[in-house]
Amino acid sequence: MIKNYFKYFLPLSIAIFSTLTSCSKGFDADNYVAYIGGEIVNPQENFVLFLKDNELIDTIFLDKDNRFMHKFDSLVPGLYTFKHDPEYQYIYFDKNDSLMIRLNTFDFDNSIVFCGRGDEKNNFLMELYLQNEADKALMFKVFDRDVNRFVKNIDSSFAIRKSLYLKKKAEIGWDANFDLIAKSSLDFHHISKKEIYPYAHQFRTGENIRQTLPKNYYSHRKEVDFDNTSLTDFAPYIRYVNSLLTNVALQNNANDLNENSLNNNIAKLNITDTLIKNEKTKNVVLNNVALMYLLEDQNMYNNQKFVERYLQLSTNVEQEKEITEIYSSVQNLKVGNKLPEISLIDENNEPFDIRTSIKKPTVLFFWTTPAESHLITAHKKAMELKEKYPNYDFIAININDSDSKWRNALKKYKLNTIKELHSVDFEAIRKLWVITKVHRIIVLNSDGTIKNGFANFFDVHFEQNL
User: Fold this and answer.
1) Helix (H, G, I), strand (E, B) or coil at 347
2) Domain spans of the chain?
3) Is the separation of the CB atoms in 78 and 175 below 8 Å?
4) Contact call for residues 346 and 420 (beta carbons, < 8 A)
5) CB 433 within 8 A of CB 342
6) DSSP states of 199-225 as a string?
7) How many CA atoms lie within 13 A of 342 on its CB side?
8) Where is the Thioredoxin domain (predicted)?
9) 276 with 226: CB under 8 angstroms?
10) Mean pLDDT score of the chain, rounded to an integer?
11) Could you tell me which CATH number the domain at 344-465 has?
12) Which sign does the torsion angle of CA 455, 456, 460, 462 carry?
């Protein structure tokens, strides 16, 4: 991979490193000058965003060759995020690092390579991230196993990653601040699986194995610093905390095994309030619980009770505003309502108004090119249902690709058997139709009113909607 990187990126490397070399005299013990540059292949926007703790630091624009270069006169060492909609990834800066990034949006995570001062640490984080993602994809059947076989499997997987971590730590010699991020990437992935197992196993097999867990099964919880602000916005930490909250809530509410129920999600809010003392970290976790709940449970009475409890515990005004906006959007998607107006175009670049163009009962489903497996399986499912329910129309809506990428995908995957539409404004459809997960389905009546605004193609009971 590194060899290919230099093959295609050498001209930019020379140009940027010439700049960095000429500026290197400015690096000394008293300043925090840092550089970031790179190239975006197949860009979706003409800029990248650079963020710290979910706060925008700078917008860096691409030139005519889709390259960018930016100098920070002072950049505090730590974990940052670079974002090129709709994807994002982490980047770690030490003092005076100068990093280049090359990526291809058609395979965002797998294509990312770092080069320059600080590249070894960041390439390691990406390598570990990709290994973790590949491991997650293999976990579903592992959750079906008995406790001993499950623990043996995840311990073996963890040992392989830990070996990589120890090897790179010795080779690179990073400091304690970076080690916190590196070790958290390693550890949180492992212990998240331990929290998920009890309820995933019961959901998949019907067997409650909680009483057979080893006495030291949850010993990892003692090692977690839930108030470490360096991890507040770090996805592996948030993912772990959410799996922990779900596990504890389901354990405490033995008669309610629905992780999306009102009782279990209010329990998650209450557990968060007890478990996490740091105000900033607590607000982030509360916000995450609220987002996940509001996008799953669409009982309007439940939503109101949940939001009331959330607002009692949260102290972040901006996050509270986001949650109340989503709550309002969900209210607008009640059965019998018309969908809020969204700009959509068809393959001929003609506007398509869902509110007025529907003449038959209709199923709307959504896709995006980064989720290739969903793209394929969702279209296949739609074709099967179209044949089974000829009185229904099925419409596919691409939610967040560029126009050219959408049209290329239509050709590549031969998507010409059902109506294909493209969302002109991803933020609008995300907010007004609350489309944050591609598995969402909206079922409409023949007059365009909502029959079910929050269905799922792959729910075993989905066809009851039809």
Assistant:
1) coil
2) 2-117, 344-465
3) no
4) yes
5) yes
6) HHHHHHHS---GGGS-TTTTGGGGG--
7) 25
8) 333-466
9) yes
10) 87
11) 3.40.30.10
12) positive
